Amino acid sequence: MAKVETITPDEHCIVTAAVAEAEQHTNGEIVTVIAGQSDDYRETPIYWAVAAMFLALACIAVFPEWFEQLLSTFTGGWEHVYTPGEYLTIIMLLLGIKFAAVRLILGWKPLRLALTPAAVKQMRVRARAINLFKVSAEKRTVGLTGVLIYLSMAEHRAEIVADSAIAAKVSPDVWGEAMADMIVELKAGRAGEGMAAAVRDVGKVLAEHFPKTGDNPNELPDRLIEL
């Protein structure tokens, strides 16, 4: 996975301070994670290469005269009557070249990411957020009040995942304001400020449902985790 290059030490401090401030008013624990990319999407080149093969095959089937003219052009204009075996061999060779070329071109990560469907990216970001939540926050607090704010830079997507005690009281759509405030800052190129804004909004929700008590320790790290 690509490492984030846009988060400065100052932005780390901004997010960490926001977490510490938010947790002054709640027994909830906020974990922040920012990643360069959530998945490599290695299957995307294969899908597009297969699609290109079928498209080429369809063109040959629908426009056989065009394909024969193309073959004649590549052979210097000489007419040749191909046997079925020769014809099939040429087609299979061309399909193989098409498959290899598309897969090679999509080996370039920015293009591969751009051609990955949005629904697939959303699913992978969500899956990574859940996995990170399980290892960083789930069931790691006494009151089951951990919440993860996850930002994946390459996909331009974020997720908020909460532990069971929070999920029982807070509907997922409540986090919409935190996501919206984060996006405003992200569009301005301020990823750290975006995370801090989300932290403040999440903190307000947690303070409402899980107000601070004197016997609640700081159970999870406040610092921004950068992957």
The profile of the biggest β sheet is: 4 strands, mixed
The appropriate CATH architecture of the largest domain is Roll
Q: Percent helix among the residues?
A: 55-70%
The number of distinct helices, counting runs of at least 4 residues, comes to 9
The CATH class of the largest domain is identified as Alpha Beta
User: Widest sheet: strand order?
Assistant: 3-2-1-4
Order of helices and strands: HEHHHHHEEHHHE
Instruction: Give the low-confidence spans.
Output: none
Task: Determine the N-to-C terminus distance.
Answer: 8 Å
The CATH topology name of the largest domain reads Diaminopimelate Epimerase, Chain A, domain 1
What's the gyration radius in Å? 26 Å
Mean pLDDT: 88
Strand content: 5-15%
Describe the protein in words:
- The protein has 2 domains: 143 residues, Diaminopimelate Epimerase, Chain A, domain 1, CATH 3.10.310.50; 70 residues, no CATH class.
- The protein starts with 8 loop residues before the first helix and ends with a strand.
- Strands 3-2-1-4 form a 4-stranded mixed β-sheet, with helices on both faces.
- A hairpin with a 4-residue loop joins strand 2 and strand 3.
- Helix 1 packs parallel to helix 9.
- By secondary structure, the chain is an alpha/beta fold.
